[in-house]
User: Which sequence fits this backbone?
């Protein structure tokens, strides 16, 4: 068994046995459980709370697409923010605590160290997104009596590609910025820049800058091309991991 | 025989500080080598360069005949390393960490079971199921030594291995290091002179990034040390001290606070023969005549402590 596999198994066990098992799964489970219910009962809730202010305005009847949109909005918004903060110290925490020194003086290359982290946490995110989407799908079917899968799964997988890109980006920031808060700040800045860049149509159509908007559009039942945004997202993620590994190899511990 | 460690002109500069300055060092295979120096002398920097955690500004480092920089994976497979403050995954138990460390070397199955059990026993951590996060510093240090041995390394590199240990733990670790003599090369840095004197056969003394001396302990004592004799007499100590000063074999005579006379000698045989005769001639009695060598501590203080006193 190579050092890569042993280290990757350590990463997986670390997720299961530390705070990591509670934060992202907790956030995603909360959104998955509440999204369809909120979508189904929003008109009733609004009517009960603000009937006087609505006058004669009638809210449209909610559909399963509202539940899907809610899930995707949460995935590409709050959940992504949480991911950026959680992964701000994915590498630097090991450098600071001295665990990286004990691992990297054994036959494990620095590239394997970085790649194993990104691979394991990408799989972890994929499991969370799939599990959360399954819960959303089931609850949507229960709440609305109808829940076609394609719009939900296409948009959720587009969000997963964006999430994997941000794991790679945070790995890179965590290698170059030793302070977790600094890396998280840089990640949030990158998120803001991408959101602004997506407004420009060529970038929005052909790069990951438009991935969030495209996913929301699909979840709302509209056609939207996500092939290029997903491809650029995954290619950039690979590039960022290579860059992070290169910088980490040159870093002194 | 290939040197376990060979450095040539090894230099490491941080900003305007030369942490290591042209260090030439040879550590023979099978030796227990003490790398001695005061705090801030550059010992940890040296170990970081030997393990490839840092890169030299100038010079070269060879471990077991290979350049650290070019064949680092091969080199890492041959070494065991304990940093000065080892960092562990605090959610693991000691046994889990040893199994993880062994797995990184590709050790598994019955071999890993046997080594993990033996090393837990050695570290006094058998049956300890507490997570490492709840360990004392001494327990972590003992686990650090154990994990450094999991691959039965050809070269064991230890940075201040006894600094966090209580006297019993310190004795256990030093006995263990001494037992490795001839089987594994042990290179350990320390500022504790007694540890070096107790287990090392060879020593280098580092001061301000430079090796000020390097060799077998006995050679160093012979090279830098002069022999001394302590004499206690029943009467006329002052007169005898003056008389000793006149002898050609005595280079210095001092009085201790308890009245004993300490004589630095160039010819121990002559001193041992003539001192009783001189005492007797003065009608005094000889209570104590003790011949001794200069200790490593005195060599160390002479070499690095002169302008700090």
Assistant:
């Amino acid at each position: 068994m190579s050092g890569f596999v042993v280290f990757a198994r350590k990463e997986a066990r670390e997720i299961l046995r530390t705070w990591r098992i509670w934060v992202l799964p907790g956030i995603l489970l909360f959104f998955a459980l509440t999204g369809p219910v909120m979508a189904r009962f929003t008109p009733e809730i609004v009517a009960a709370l603000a009937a006087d202010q609505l006058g004669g305005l009638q809210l449209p009847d909610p559909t399963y697409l509202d539940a899907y949109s809610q899930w995707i909005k949460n995935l590409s918004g709050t959940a992504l923010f949480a991911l950026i903060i959680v992964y701000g110290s994915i590498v630097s925490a090991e450098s600071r605590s001295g665990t990286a020194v004990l691992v990297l003086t054994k036959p494990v290359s620095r590239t394997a160290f970085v790649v194993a982290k990104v691979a394991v946490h990408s799989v972890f995110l994929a499991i969370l997104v799939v599990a959360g989407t399954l819960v959303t799908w089931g609850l949507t079917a229960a709440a609305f009596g109808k829940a076609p899968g394609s719009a939900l799964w296409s948009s959720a997988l587009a969000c997963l590609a964006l999430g994997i890109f941000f794991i790679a980006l945070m790995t890179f920031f965590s290698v170059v910025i030793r302070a977790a808060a600094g890396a998280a700040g840089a990640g949030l800045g990158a998120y803001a820049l991408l959101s602004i860049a997506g407004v420009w149509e060529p970038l929005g159509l052909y790069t990951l800058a438009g991935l969030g908007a495209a996913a929301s559009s699909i979840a709302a039942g509209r056609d939207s091309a996500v092939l290029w945004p997903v491809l650029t997202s995954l290619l950039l993620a690979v590039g960022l991991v290579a860059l992070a590994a290169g910088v980490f190899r040159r870093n002194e511990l | 025989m290939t040197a376990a460690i060979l450095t040539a002109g090894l230099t490491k500069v941080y900003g305007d500080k030369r942490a290591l300055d042209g260090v030439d060092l040879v550590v023979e295979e099978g030796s227990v080598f003490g790398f001695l120096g005061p705090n801030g002398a550059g010992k940890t920097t040296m170990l970081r360069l030997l393990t490839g955690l840092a890169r030299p500004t100038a010079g070269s480092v060879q471990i077991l005949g290979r350049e650290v920089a070019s064949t680092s994976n091969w080199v890492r497979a041959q070494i065991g390393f304990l940093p000065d403050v080892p960092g562990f995954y605090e959610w693991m138990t000691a046994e889990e960490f040893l199994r993880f460390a062994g797995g990184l070397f590709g050790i598994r199955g019955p071999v890993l079971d046997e080594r993990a059990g033996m090393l837990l026993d050695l570290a006094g951590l058998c049956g300890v199921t507490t997570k490492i996060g709840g360990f004392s510093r001494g327990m972590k240090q003992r686990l650090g030594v154990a994990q450094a041995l999991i691959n039965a390394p050809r070269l064991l590199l230890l940075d201040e291995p006894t600094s966090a240990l209580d006297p019993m733990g310190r004795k256990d670790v030093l006995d263990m290091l001494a037992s490795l003599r001839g089987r594994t090369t042990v290179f350990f840095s320390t500022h504790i002179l007694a540890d070096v004197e107790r287990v090392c056969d060879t020593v280098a003394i580092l001061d301000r990034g430079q090796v000020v001396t390097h060799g077998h302990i006995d050679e160093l004592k012979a090279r830098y040390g002069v022999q001394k004799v302590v004499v206690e007499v029943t009467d006329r100590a002052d007169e005898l001290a003056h008389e000793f000063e006149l002898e050609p074999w005595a280079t210095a005579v001092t009085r201790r606070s308890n009245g004993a006379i300490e004589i630095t000698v160039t010819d121990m045989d002559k001193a041992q023969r003539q001192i009783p005769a001189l005492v007797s001639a003065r009608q005094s009695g000889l209570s104590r005549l003790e011949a001794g060598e200069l200790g490593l501590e005195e060599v160390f203080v002479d070499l690095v402590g002169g302008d700090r006193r």
In short: Chain B has a mean pLDDT of 88. The longest helix of chain B spans residues 109-122. Chain B touches chain A through 27 residues (CB under 8 Å).
